[in-house]
Amino acid sequence: MNSTSDNALMLKVKEGDLDKLGLLFERYNKRLYHFFYRLTHRRDLSEDLVQGVFERILKYRNTYTNSGSFATWIFQIARNLQADHYSQNSPCEQADRDIEWEKLEGDNIIFEKEQQQEQELELLQQAINQLSDTKKETLILSRFEGFRYKEIAEIMGCSESAVKVRIFRALQELEVQMKELKRNGYD
Amino acid sequence: MINEQYIELITAYIDDSITSEQRVRLNDLIDKGEIDIDIKQMEATYKKMGQLPAPEPSDQMREAFYDMIGNEKEQQVPQKSNTWINRIEELFAPKKVPRMAFFTVIFLVGMFTGNLLTPFQDYQQQMDQLSGEVSKMRQVMMMSLLDNQSSSERLKAVNISTDIQTADKRVVTALLKTLNNDSNVNVRLASIQALLHHAENPRVRRGLIRSISRQTSPQIQVALADAMLALQETQSVDELQKLLQQNELDSTVRDKLKNTIAALS
């Protein structure tokens, strides 16, 4: 095993060499932060949750078994932590961003290409926010974190085919939601 | 309701993992009208998600993490000794033996084993003392050789530093000073390798990152880019980009930096 691989570093942490956790933090903090941010849309909460992931790693470092990919292991922790947070707190604290149609329409002139793109992205974000947590997580892990379907199945504790069905259904729902949002926005 | 077997094909198409065999089958099903979903639109939505922005975490998050590690390290030592003492206490807990007899036996056993192990302890102490002195000697030798006029002597000094188990602040500072100021490229290259031996030290990693934009030699620039890649040091991207903006940069180095930035971003 390469001595600088994630798994080798985590084994060192398990043996008590806590400085190695610093290297793992540098490798994963942004990925985890973006994962949480895309789920919650709250910067402060996302930073707290990243800290929480590394707290759990420190606390349970002795249970690390090096039996699979470190990336899937750390995202399993991240996912559980996020679920724990929302079981203890009201989901209504989630940020809810409404589309600012007036802002996007500007001076009511024909949309320029840039504005149109911005509007499309806002719509897409709004549609993603309306997906169920499970579908949203599956899409985020696949599209933004670059995990393969098999790895997502490992992180989420389900079958690979279930992951594929969730991705498929989520994309179908996004199409419907976006059409709906467009229609409501222009009516 | 779409057949679940088709979902397998569509999701493989969307994340670009589709095989040529699957592609033929998918096209066939679309031609036959068995799949009447606009998969191009689905793929476009999936790809468009990649353009959604996300902010960067603040510096406070990093500070909070390193504070947490610092606290944990402080707690580590007493915890270990407590456990050790507890285990011994558990082992010798005088549950049935009368208290006085128990302590007398412990006293006698202590005296006996104390006498038995004294030579061994002396030996162990001597060994510890000796290795500590060797380590100090290495440090002194390294520091004095680093000031030498001859570059081969300075190279020796840098190599000596790799034998030092845990580099203290003085050693790290000396190596970073060599990396940034030594006139000889080989000595500077060796100092990068030496510093990588102590990469778990945050001071070393920060020093390596800060050194990037100070270097003018293509060899050193490439070696530092390789080091950043080996450490997966995402913090170095800004410094690498700063270096990339220099007009007189060697074209090989330019390519190397671009690849490194792409791999770290």
From TrEMBL, chain B:
Q: What is this protein called?
A: HEAT repeat domain-containing protein
- SUPFAM superfamilies (alphabetical): ARM repeat
Lineage, top ranks: Bacteria, Pseudomonadati, Balneolota, Balneolia, Balneolales
